[in-house]
Amino acid sequence: MAKETKMLKNDEAKKLSKPSTKSLKANETKKLSVSKTRAKKIKHSYKVKDAENALLLKLKDGDVIIEMYPNDAPNHVARIKELVRAGFYNGLKFHRVIDGFMAQTGCPYGNGTGGTGHKLKAEFNRNPHKRGTVSMARAMNPDSGDSQFFICFADCPWLDGQYTVWGEVTSGMEFVDLIKRGEGPNGAVYDPDEIISMSVIADL
Q1: For residues 88 and 80, what is the distance between their CA atoms, to the nearest angstrom?
Q2: Which one is the CATH code of 54-203: 3.40.50.970, 2.40.100.10, 1.10.10.10, 3.40.980.10?
Q3: Between the chain's N and C termini, which has fewer beta carbons within 10 Å?
């Protein structure tokens, strides 16, 4: 009798219709709406000290969390957030990547020659350039930082006090490590990896 009941249940299970989302293509399922409650849970799943001053950097291999230093580099942090909220960094390339040193991005031309045209006065501080540090790239002039920044793969103490440190990677450094390295002059990357998107966590 027990076996008979089990068989009936299996037969019934076979007759059940598939979920309506089963036949959707992958790109269509991504468009399905997320409830406000679910969105709130997603935001709180990122364990950061201050969601307004933390970024979600999406790379091809995974998500990276950057916590910023608004007290040490207030103007840089404010500008970075402004650019992030405008979608400026989405799709930009890691145009200069040197193994054991750093990965640089933020040039709209993808070759390290451009920015937004809005230069920032240097805010050098005591934060060291260590593995995971996020710092502003610049030209010879200390006050020439614009939109380009770099993430250190390793400790780089010779940069301390020379570049504006505005944040650090607190989660996902293993995905930063997978960014494609450059083989060209000065770390230039052929067919470079890109930033999929950058968001302020408070906005998620």
Answers
A1: 10
A2: 2.40.100.10
A3: N
